[in-house]
Amino acid sequence: MSSPFTVPPPALDQAELKRRQAVIMMRAVLFFLGLSALLVLVLPLPLPLPLRAAVAGCDLIAALVVYAVYRQRIRAR
Hints:
Blueprint: H1 14-42, H2 49-76
Helix pairs in contact: 1-2
């Protein structure tokens, strides 16, 4: 009787590997854009509050645009 742990995992083809790498890159970009928006608001920078809010808002808008472009590209496949 063979153990289920001795069965090798299925091999990934190149398309699936590229898709997984793209998903990881997308999540990293969105994470760092969100983190930078949060840090600009929280850290005591020598900028007025409205300017800090505008910079954080631009980071969040950039994250939304990156996400929207990525979703559109995925649906086009």
